[in-house]
């Protein structure tokens, strides 16, 4: 069976002919759309490496069948920076050394972007830890990750204040 | 994954008409897609119900009941200010489960329909080996058989609050008490439910009276790591306190039975009594009185007992003003006025 | 984290600085390319079928069903597998293991590859693999340490540790006025790097190009070449980034060899990526151990004996015996020391080196035993360790090349607030009624060096290219090694282009044993030095150069200029020297390895002290590590920021070892039932709070030219014991089995 779906990925509309309904969003991005920045760590929703933003919310792309997504807006790690200008979360991850091997990092960053948008944690480190617990880092860069999310949250809040003023 | 047909109906009628034996409803997919990947379930047809209109709202009905559309996400329900205010332990249970990503996608109906996760149980004969620890084997409600515990956190406070499941199917619409949704273990592996073939959950409903517990209502979840772990034992406790006495109590246990385990006897014991630690211990004792250890998990019975007693004490202390930073965790401060409030 | 890292003496202008990762932008933008991110044209996907029994034979595979699945292009089984030129049971290179590549129908452990399916899509190959639906003739599985007879280990190098005995052990036991005899158990643990093992293989004639995560590029080339009967130089490996390794990615594994074979057979590129579940089997693990420790002290609480016997699980067909008991050598000044090893063969995949192999498991038991001994002596655990502080290596009497362990103890204790610790357990509660306990452990890790080569090329514009096939698996090679190279050339970091992660470069050696920065860095340092030496010769001989005639003086390089030592008025720029010489570039070569005479003369180790606070719910017995301070002395720290991250990561591995990691086998099938991240727990973010690292600087002139000891593994050592000891201090319960679980405390 063939399905056609339209996705807006990192701002660009894409018409996709899906010859196979089994394809997950993760495998669609990595194997068919040449967007391998999103990583496969467990393929079962247990590690968060595949986190992307779908319609404004962080999700595990490994458990999302692409066929269900017709019309969706998808943001991946490749679409986060604006040209050469890094997103505040990306900047903070570098500054706070919020990664080592870098494999879980795209998922961590997209999860952090989602968490900050949810407004659930603010800059409370304990709430950030809880909110980021769906993203496993085997190098265990958690200390830097928490600091990075805290720092980015503050910076984004300040920037927003600045914009409003 | 076995190939399947994929349909995306636009109305409930279309969805029901699309059903055929071997078909499965696809909501958030966080459980179903995983099970399809492991081969544990192999539907021939997926009916994507996420486009069905009207199933993603939370509303208060004229009779005061709260009706939660089947497709409302776990996160949206927990974050709904009105809902969290009226049913704080339900919100706390939701937020103690899974991860932020999963809660954004998983639906409330999918949550209560989760499959057991015990690998021994899912794939093989019942375990006999104490090395497994039996952490996910049921100690209550098994009818003498081996069974995996129901993994849902959400269902535990719901069953305590008399939640009802609204379904529609080939035979029309009907309601099932959540307490009756999960059937006792049968001969086949895998837990089964009271849903008939082709029936679709449209909503969950909490009666108006359920909001009467909001001031003293906690969910407590013991687990092997601080977050993103299934419960080893959990309890939802609610008290309606009038004049320093317990007017009415609700108590349900999680991760001890093949279904969320409401303990009416313990509730009855608590009603009319003054708040007292010994009373809570006594109620917890009653709650676990029929428990039978399996695969070396006698410790789980004791743990569940202590969890129940603690949850009652926490409920008595009062619902926190703000959701704890670590929802339902023993490491969330236990008093009513929390550090992070 | 407060700025507690003692910044070491500046070494040039780059080393010693907390430079942010040079690969940071690539990693935060998703452009850092890991193996499975590569998708060459005309790619086939490979998926293998893991055995679901642990011992027996495969009697049937439904090949027809798999082949009939749309998109499946090939099913490889023992019946039709094309020939390999190499013997799967041979061990072509150092660190090799016997591999399973469908050589027969036998099953030696659950998770072993028993068939490989190729498909035009990943979905097709995955379903094809499932449709093979194997049937078996199964035999009873042996998966527990008591399931078979233990046997002494015949020493034989890698994987077969020799026992060690110093002093009169019997006399040491006899002299003890107080003694303990305790047995600790550790569980099987699986590396589980976030990036699962993978390969993308492409053949062109008899030339093989691989994207494959490897901790040893040139050695892996030789390994793969062996199996395919081609010269090692015909194999090219590209591995700019590894998504974690932890010891599991040093050598070729069976699944990777099979995928390469499939690429050869089909003439198309093949990609294979292990699933998370498949990480529990053919790619190594830390074998389970049972360790008996007998310690004795005299009336002054001086250790008369440490007698450490280790029993470790290994596979039925190969040898890797966790050298746990050796952790008791080299640390405490006991009158007599004995380490002995036995092994039991089980139906599990062959274990291998996993972050701090031997030290992690052995230290877990030793540091708990030390705590028990201190308790028996009635003295503070830190005081007990200080009383048994070794000024020279116990047993051998060798001097340490450097040892700032005492400073680690003092600074760590001070930072942690150890002096306020009650001696007896179950004395502390927090404001929420949680039992609180403090524990400590000592960390020890050797600082080996391998051998590496490097090349430095100074360009006419004064910039440089430095090259070695170094590996970045998260430790920060892209950054720290570039800092070393820049210093060796006297250039600012941004004037140095660094190429690594490719087998065509000079051999960067092995990223393992915490020795990569020392080894590859040493080679880069030497290569840069070679350039500067040649440059000095050219300048000194050049009448136009301000350095003319200074040939007998030493030169130093700074900011792209060469200076006469001690005379800043005489200098010349690199670019000018080259321009006048008419050279487009100047190439220097370097290599590094340990000086054998220093290795003979000195005991070389990193040291550390770890202090941990845990909270335990008094009724529910859930545990949380709420604070840890680790103080480490590891020679010169090249990049404090990255070193801190590695040490923190190691300490969190300590949390993981102490509280979480355990592969559980179903005794009926031998299958690991928790082979995924939902069942096999490692810490999540919420498990990590209040961690601090301090580093104590050491100037060590003997370990290597750069004074580097390495920080990759020592963080886990000491941390496990510290946490277990803190749990005892909180609860009064000694749990002598890892991980420590709720049920262990509840039933203690």
What key phrases describe this protein's structure?
heterotrimer, A: 165 residues, alpha+beta, Ubiquitin-like (UB roll), DNA polymerase, domain 1, 2 domains, five-stranded mixed beta sheet, 5 strands, 15% strand, C: 748 residues, Aldehyde Oxidoreductase, domain 4, seven-stranded mixed beta sheet, six-stranded mixed beta sheet, 24% helix, globular, disordered N terminus
CATH architecture of one domain in chain B: 2-Layer Sandwich
- Amount of helix of chain C: 10-25%
Q: How many angstroms does the end-to-end distance of chain B come to? A: 46 Å
- Could you name the CATH topology of one domain in chain C? Aldehyde Oxidoreductase, domain 4
Q: What topology emerges from the helices and strands here?
A:
The complex is a heterotrimer of chains A (165), B (341) and C (748).
Chain A: E1 3-9, E2 12-18, H1 25-32, E3 51-54, E4 57-60, E5 73-75, H2 88-95, H3 105-118, H4 125-131, H5 142-164
Parallel strand pairs in A: 1-5
Antiparallel strand pairs in A: 1-2, 3-4, 3-5
Helix pairs in contact in A: 2-5
Chain B: E1 5-7, H1 12-18, E2 23-26, H2 32-38, E3 45-48, E4 58-60, E5 66-69, H3 74-79, H4 81-86, H5 88-96, H6 100-105, H7 108-112, H8 119-123, H9 155-160, E6 164-169, E7 172-177, H10 178-181, E8 200-206, E9 217-223, E10 231-242, E11 245-254, E12 261-262, H11 264-270, H12 277-287, H13 298-317
Parallel strand pairs in B: 1-3, 2-3
Antiparallel strand pairs in B: 4-5, 5-8, 6-7, 6-8, 9-10, 10-11, 11-12
Helix pairs in contact in B: 11-12, 12-13
Chain C: H1 24-29, E1 44-50, E2 56-60, H2 63-68, E3 72-76, E4 106-107, E5 113-119, H3 122-131, E6 135-138, E7 150-152, E8 164-166, H4 169-175, E9 178-186, E10 198-204, E11 207-211, H5 217-228, E12 235-238, H6 254-266, E13 270-273, E14 289-297, E15 303-315, E16 336-346, H7 359-377, H8 381-387, H9 405-416, E17 428-429, E18 435-446, E19 452-459, E20 464-467, H10 477-489, E21 496-499, H11 516-540, E22 555-558, E23 561-564, E24 567-573, H12 574-581, E25 585-592, H13 596-601, E26 605-616, E27 623-633, H14 640-659, E28 691-695, H15 719-731, H16 742-746
Parallel strand pairs in C: 1-13, 11-12, 15-16, 20-21, 27-28
Antiparallel strand pairs in C: 1-5, 2-4, 2-6, 3-5, 7-16, 8-16, 9-14, 10-11, 10-13, 14-15, 17-18, 18-26, 19-20, 19-25, 22-23, 23-24, 26-27
Helix pairs in contact in C: 7-15, 10-11, 14-15
């Amino acid at each position: 069976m063939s399905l056609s779906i339209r996705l807006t990925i990192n701002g660009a509309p894409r018409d996709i002919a899906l010859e196979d309904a089994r394809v997950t969003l993760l495998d669609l991005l990595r194997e068919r759309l040449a967007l391998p920045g999103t990583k496969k760590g467990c393929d079962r929703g247990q590690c968060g490496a595949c986190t992307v933003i779908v319609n404004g919310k962080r999700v595990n792309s490994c458990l999302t069948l692409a066929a269900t997504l017709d019309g969706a807006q998808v943001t991946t790690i490749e679409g986060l920076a604006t040209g050469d200008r890094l997103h505040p979360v990306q900047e903070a991850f570098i500054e706070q050394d919020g990664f080592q091997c870098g494999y879980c990092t795209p998922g961590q960053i997209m999860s952090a972007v989602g968490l900050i948008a949810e407004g659930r944690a603010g800059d409370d480190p304990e709430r950030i830890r809880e909110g980021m617990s769906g993203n496993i880092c085997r190098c265990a860069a958690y200390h830097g990750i928490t600091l990075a999310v805290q720092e980015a949250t503050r910076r984004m809040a300040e920037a927003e204040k600045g914009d409003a003023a | 994954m076995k190939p399947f047909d994929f349909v995306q109906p636009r109305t409930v009628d279309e969805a029901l008409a699309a059903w055929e034996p071997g078909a499965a409803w696809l909501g958030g997919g966080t459980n179903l897609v995983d099970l399809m990947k492991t081969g544990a379930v192999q539907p021939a047809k997926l009916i994507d119900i996420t486009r069905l209109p009207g199933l993603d709202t939370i509303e208060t009905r004229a009779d005061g009941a709260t009706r939660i559309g089947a497709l409302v996400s776990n996160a949206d329900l927990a974050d709904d200010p009105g809902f969290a205010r009226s049913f704080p332990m339900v919100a706390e249970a939701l937020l103690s489960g899974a991860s932020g990503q999963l809660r954004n996608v998983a639906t409330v109906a999918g949550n209560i329909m989760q499959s057991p996760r015990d690998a021994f149980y899912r794939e093989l004969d019942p375990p006999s080996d104490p090395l497994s620890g039996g952490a996910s084997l049921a100690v209550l409600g098994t009818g003498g058989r081996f069974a995996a515990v129901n993994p849902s956190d959400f269902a535990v406070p719901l069953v305590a609050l008399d939640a009802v499941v609204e379904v529609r199917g080939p035979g029309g619409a009907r309601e099932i008490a959540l307490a009756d949704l999960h059937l006792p273990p049968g001969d086949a592996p895998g837990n089964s439910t009271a849903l008939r073939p082709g029936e679709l959950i449209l909503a969950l409903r909490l009666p108006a009276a359920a909001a009467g517990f909001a001031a003293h209502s906690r969910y407590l979840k013991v687990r092997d790591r601080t977050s993103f772990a299934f419960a080893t034992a959990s309890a939802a406790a609610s008290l309606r306190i009038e004049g320093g006495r317990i007017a009415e109590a609700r108590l349900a246990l999680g991760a001890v039975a093949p279904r969320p385990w409401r303990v009416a006897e313990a509730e009855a014991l608590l009603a009319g009594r003054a708040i007292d630690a010994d009373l809570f211990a006594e109620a917890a004792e009653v709650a676990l009185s029929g428990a039978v250890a399996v695969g070396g998990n006698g410790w789980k019975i004791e743990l569940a007992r202590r969890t129940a007693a603690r949850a009652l004490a926490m409920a008595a202390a009062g619902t926190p003003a703000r959701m704890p930073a670590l929802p339902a965790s023993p490491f969330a401060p236990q008093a009513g006025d929390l550090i992070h409030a | 984290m407060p700025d507690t890292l003692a910044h070491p003496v500046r070494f040039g202008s780059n080393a010693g600085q907390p430079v942010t990762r040079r690969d940071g932008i690539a990693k935060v933008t998703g452009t850092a390319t890991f193996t499975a991110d590569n998708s060459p044209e005309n790619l086939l996907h490979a998926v293998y079928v893991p055995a679901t029994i642990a011992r027996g034979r495969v009697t049937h595979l439904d090949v027809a069903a798999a082949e009939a699945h749309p998109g499946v292009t090939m099913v490889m089984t023992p019946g039709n597998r094309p020939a390999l030129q190499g013997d799967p049971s041979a061990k072509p290179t150092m660190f090799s293991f016997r591999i399973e590549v469908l050589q027969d129908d036998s099953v030696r452990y659950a998770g072993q590859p028993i068939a490989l399916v190729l498909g035009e899509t990943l979905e097709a190959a995955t379903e094809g693999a499932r449709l093979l639906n194997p049937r078996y003739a199964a035999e009873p599985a042996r998966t527990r340490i008591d399931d078979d007879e233990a046997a002494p280990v015949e020493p034989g190098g890698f994987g077969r540790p020799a026992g060690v005995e110093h002093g009169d052990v019997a006399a040491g036991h006899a002299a003890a006025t107080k003694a303990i005899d305790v047995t600790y158990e550790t569980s099987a643990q699986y590396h589980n790097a976030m990036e699962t093992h993978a390969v993308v293989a492409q053949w062109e004639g008899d030339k093989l190009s691989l994207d494959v995560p490897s901790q040893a590029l040139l050695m892996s080339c030789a390994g793969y070449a062996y199996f395919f009967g081609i010269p090692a130089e015909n194999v090219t490996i590209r591995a700019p980034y590894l998504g974690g390794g932890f010891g599991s990615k040093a050598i070729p594994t069976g699944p990777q060899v099979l995928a390469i074979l499939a690429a050869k057979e089909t003439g198309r590129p093949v990609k294979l990526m292990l699933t998370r579940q498949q990480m529990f089997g053919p790619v190594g693990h830390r074998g389970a151990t049972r360790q008996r420790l007998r310690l004795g002290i005299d009336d002054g609480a001086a250790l008369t004996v440490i007698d450490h016997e280790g029993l470790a699980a290994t596979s039925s067909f190969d040898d890797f015996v966790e050298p746990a008991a050796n952790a008791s050598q080299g640390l405490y000044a006991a009158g007599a020391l004995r380490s002995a090893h036995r092994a039991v063969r089980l139906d599990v995949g062959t274990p291998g080196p996993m972050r701090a192999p031997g030290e992690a498991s052995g230290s877990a038991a030793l540091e708990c035993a030390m705590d028990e001994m201190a308790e028996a002596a009635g003295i503070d655990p830190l005081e007990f360790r200080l009383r048994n502080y070794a000024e020279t290596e116990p047993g051998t009497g060798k001097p340490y090349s450097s040892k700032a362990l005492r400073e680690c103890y003092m600074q760590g204790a001070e930072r942690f607030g150890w002096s306020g610790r009650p001696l007896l357990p179950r004395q502390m509660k927090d404001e929420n009624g949680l039992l609180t306990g403090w524990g400590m452990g000592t960390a020890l890790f050797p600082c080996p060096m391998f051998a590496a080569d490097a090349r430095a090329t100074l360009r006419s514009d004064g910039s440089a290219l430095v090259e070695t096939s170094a590996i970045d698996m998260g430790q920060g090679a892209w950054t720290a090694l570039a800092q070393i190279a820049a210093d060796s050339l006297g250039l600012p970091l941004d004037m140095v282009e660094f190429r690594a992660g490719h087998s065509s470069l000079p051999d960067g050696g092995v990223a393992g044993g915490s020795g990569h920065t020392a080894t590859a860095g040493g080679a880069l340092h030497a290569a840069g030095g070679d350039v500067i030496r040649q440059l000095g010769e050219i300048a000194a001989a050049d009448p136009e150069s301000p350095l003319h005639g200074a040939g007998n003086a030493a030169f130093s390089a700074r900011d792209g200029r060469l200076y006469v030592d001690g005379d800043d008025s005489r200098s010349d720029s690199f670019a000018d020297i080259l321009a006048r010489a008419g050279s487009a570039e100047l190439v220097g070569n370097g290599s590094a390895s340990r000086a054998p005479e220093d290795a003979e003369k000195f005991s070389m180790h990193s040291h550390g002290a770890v202090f941990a606070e845990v909270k335990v719910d008094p009724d529910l017995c859930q545990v949380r590590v709420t604070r840890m301070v680790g103080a480490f002395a590891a020679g010169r720290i090249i990049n404090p920021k990255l070193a801190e991250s590695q040490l923190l990561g190691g300490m969190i591995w300590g949390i993981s070892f102490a509280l979480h990691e355990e592969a559980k086998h179903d005794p009926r099938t031998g299958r690991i039932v928790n082979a995924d991240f939902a069942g096999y727990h490692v810490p999540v973010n919420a498990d990590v709070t209040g961690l601090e690292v301090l580093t104590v600087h050491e100037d060590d002139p003997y370990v290597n030219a750069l004074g580097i000891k390495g920080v990759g593994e020592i963080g886990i050592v000491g941390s496990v014991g510290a946490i277990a000891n803190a749990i005892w201090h909180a609860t009064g319960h000694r749990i002598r089995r890892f991980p420590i679980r709720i049920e262990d405390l509840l039933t203690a």
